[in-house]
Prior knowledge:
By secondary structure, the chain is α+β, with helices and mostly antiparallel strands. The chain is 57% helix and 12% strand. It contains 20 helices and 12 strands. It has helices at 8-17, 21-25, 35-53, 56-63, 78-87, 106-119, 121-140, 143-155, 285-321, 340-372, 376-411, 423-430, 440-453, 458-475, 481-507, 511-544, 550-566, 569-579, 582-586, 589-592; strands at residues 66-68, 71-73, 158-163, 179-183, 186-197, 206-214, 225-231, 233-235, 241-244, 247-252, 263-268, 274-279. The strands form 3 sheets. Strands 3, 4, 5, 6, 7, 10, 11 and 12 form an 8-stranded mixed β-sheet that branches. A hairpin with a 2-residue loop joins strand 1 and strand 2. Helix 10 crosses helix 16 and helix 10 (340-372) crosses helix 17. It is globular, with a radius of gyration of 24 Å. 51% of the residues are buried. Bound molecules: flavin-adenine dinucleotide (FAD). Residues 162-165, 170-171, 195-197, 255, 263, 432, 435-439, 441-442, 445 line the site of flavin-adenine dinucleotide.
Amino acid sequence: MADYKAPVKDMQFVLENISRMPQLAAMTTFEDATPDMVSAILEEAGRVSAAVIAPTNVTGDEQGVRLENGTVKIPDGFADAYKQYAEGGWGSLQFDPEYGGQGLPYSLSTSVMEMWQSANMSWGLCPLLSQGAVEALYLNGSDQLKSTYLPNMISGEWTGTMNLTEPGAGSDLSVIRSKAVPEGDHYLVTGQKIFITWGDHEMADNIIHLVLARLPDAPAGVRGISLFLVPKFLVNESGELGERNDVAVASLEHKLGIHASATCVMAFGEKAGAVGYLIGEEGKGLACMFTMMNNARLAVGLQGVAISERAYQQALWYAGDRTQGKAVGFTEEGPILRHADIRRMLMTMKAFTEAGRALAYDACGSLDFAHAHEDKTLAAQEKARAAYLTPIVKGWCTEVAQEVTSLGVQIHGGMGFIEETGAAQHFRDARILPIYEGTNSIQALDLVGRKTLSDQGVAAHAIMKEISATVEQASASARFSSAARKLQAALVVAQNSTSQLLAQSAENAYFPGAVAYNYMMMMGTLCGGWQLLRSGLAAEGKQAQGESDPYLEAKQLTALFYMDQILPRYLSYAAVVDTGSEAIMAFTDEHLESAFS
Ligand SMILES: Cc1cc2nc3c(=O)[nH]c(=O)nc-3n(C[C@H](O)[C@H](O)[C@H](O)COP(=O)(O)OP(=O)(O)OC[C@H]3O[C@@H](n4cnc5c(N)ncnc54)[C@H](O)[C@@H]3O)c2cc1C
């Protein structure tokens, strides 16, 4: 089985050339993010992820989590890995120094987060959700709540969770039934939440649950939902931990993958009611939670990149180790790596992974600019850019992770289907990614509805304008001019599909839903090609300046491979958008079961 090695060189390249780290470091807000600092952080995080966290991945999968006397018992090595993570200050990189953060760019912490997710996705979910909880509390909480809870959450002494889902409320959160009744300076929260990631564990001293619930007189629907902070242990006025709150784990789920992540059914207020504190205004809970969900959606897209990277490293190692047959052009038996179709699969894995990484970091970089720009117009443009890219990062990167981890299994042949190689675990673990944090159907609807139809395509066209500028730049390069023509052809089709989407949706209410998935995949395929062309051009520029690292040549070949072998998929996605939804709408419930009724 391959050991995980953090792809520090690629991360650094993407931060420098795609997500604009040098420009960020030139701004006062992020002046500490010097090249030396970025490099030191990536190197050390790479060491911790490889030496401390990655070794817990397989044992975690085998041992899983168990519920004993109401407490979640975790696999060997998890507590120590978490201790080292917290003591290293890894959870504080991007947060406000006023609460103990280090004030570094979010895009930098994103690359570090990618390492944790590659090393062990089950374990990595705990820091991932904690960071989302910090973000939601920081942006929406009162000063008192922030000063009481944020320092310990940012330091990693306490972790955070997100409690949205209920048995009757998954994709549609407007029907949430959990209740919160005012009592003095707090509320008493009751209700059941399901599928709560890391709802309990003993890695940290306290767990801060962010919970959606309704006030007694709240109106039905989204406007009646409020957000509450419910600690596992109550915190007294001097900041010390007090009594256990009325929140308990009712049971743990048994899952297809991420066996070592505790997915809990949570019972709030079964005795006297769980003490909770309102975050933000009454009735604005979903809007507050969206700050956490947007952050988490980017992070789940990043998990798609992370698990793809891990699957690629495993497949590459196996393809170099396994001997089978003579490849064309060789007289002796050799590693399967020599076979052209194995190379196709490896290159596909690598191209998807690097395209996804560039796209995810780029979106996070925009959030950094939105935060650091003093010019409000520029800040708003960057925010809109990140918002547009978020469902593509979540949807596309996690869809392609299914293909990448499946190719990882395929490269192993029969051994891929056998657990001991580890390829199967990546495939199983990746399967949750298109489901949680808003299924990819919901991401596609978000891209089409909220991000495209609602502004009549303004944000979409802004991205397409950027793609056009990259095409123009690439046209002047002998090496990339043909790739530029291919991307230009894809861009023209995407522009037409967007016009088609806007026009047809105005006529036919079913149209957006019927084409949304294919539209999202078309835009993802286009944006992936755009990011790799940007990367290829940057690598070519470095080579022209005399840098001779083979990594730079590989980057350019990866971009050319994508244009030849992956980009053409845009045509089939676009064809569905263009032909529309007639067949889907013509199909009745009766038709669906007509073959066996
Ligand atoms: C391992 C795991 C961890 C999780 N962690 C958390 C957590 O920490 N906190 C938390 O609150 N939740 C968590 N969840 C819940 C997760 O976010 C939901 O499962 C997810 O949002 C889907 O909701 P659902 O399961 O109720 O599916 P449903 O909403 O019932 O959806 C079923 C199918 O219908 C489709 N569908 C539903 N509505 C629409 C629509 N309007 N348009 C098109 N298609 C639609 C969906 O895409 C899906 O394919 C977790 C789930 C799992 C499995």
